[in-house]
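To whoever is on call:

I kicked off a structure prediction for a single chain this morning and the downstream step that reads the tokens threw a length-mismatch warning. I double-checked the sequence; it's 336 residues and nothing unusual in it as far as I can see. Pasting both halves so you can look.
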Amino acid sequence: MPPLYQLILKKILPIIIVLILASGVYLWRINLHEIHSSQIFRMDTIIELKAQGDHELSQKAFKAAMDELRRIDDAFGYRDSLVSRLNSSLYATDRELYRLIERSLEMNRLSNGGFSITLRPVLDVWGFSGTHPYSPPSPETLKSLPRHRTDKVIHLHEDRATVTIDEGVMIDLGAIAKGYAADMAARAIKDCGVETGLVNAGGDIRTFGDRLWKIGIKNPRSQGIIATIPIKDKAIATSGDYERFFIDSGRRYCHIIDPETYKPATGRISVTVVAQNCMDADAWATALFVKGIDPLRKTLKDKGIQWIVIDARGDIQASHGLKGFCPEKIQIGPAP
């Protein structure tokens, strides 16, 4: 080999090798930061799964999360579930169901009754549980429904597995189970080795890892969003009167029932809550939609929970940590 070629190989080849290796490291790093997505329809909504990193690992994690979502939906849904069997037999023994109901009772106490899991008969007569088409019940029908305090008609036994309920009581975990499902799906993804990801269960969102996710808050009365909230390793949930509702005689009726009146809650059209886990965010969003901010402001502050409330006039209130992301008001049109 001529001396000139030997010199070129000696000087240039190491540089080429370094560049190739550097490119490989760069591409590997890009792969680690790639976001993979998947979807499943469960709990009457589309649930979106996201994972950052290796493709094969992400697919394995998505399968584990989907299996978990199916399990939770089967356990806590309306039909042929642990909940339906509890409602029919007034008795159930299951540690996971016990924990969910225990947390629900705590939320009922903390929210001064704004959060309740004993409203299934009320949801039935309004049509919000799918038993019949949407329709406002007569005043006589509402008066005929049993009235009871949630904490007095559900009984948790000392074995921390057995739950009994009084005659005539029916449990509905819809206001907490979807957030719980998001938490458990996120855990399933993490348990597979994914360090960063997101689960979006129809607006109940659980994020984990070091990535800062930007979550848009929907305008409840028009297209687009009203705010973009940065979230990292936390959960965010929104309750609104635009999610499940019907219009009758020009009036809007939403699926969030006030436990005091047995009628859809009014006064607020959208509530967003940021909390450490999605189960709490889900439950607090419902309680805050029912009660409004004034009765719950101190409790939410003590719990470190951030919130955004849009009232029926379009005025927006927000906690200190979220105020800077929100406008002061949105436009409310003439439509109901």
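Update from on-call: the warning came from a stale cache, not from the record. Cleared it. Sanity check on the structure: The chain has a mean pLDDT of 90.
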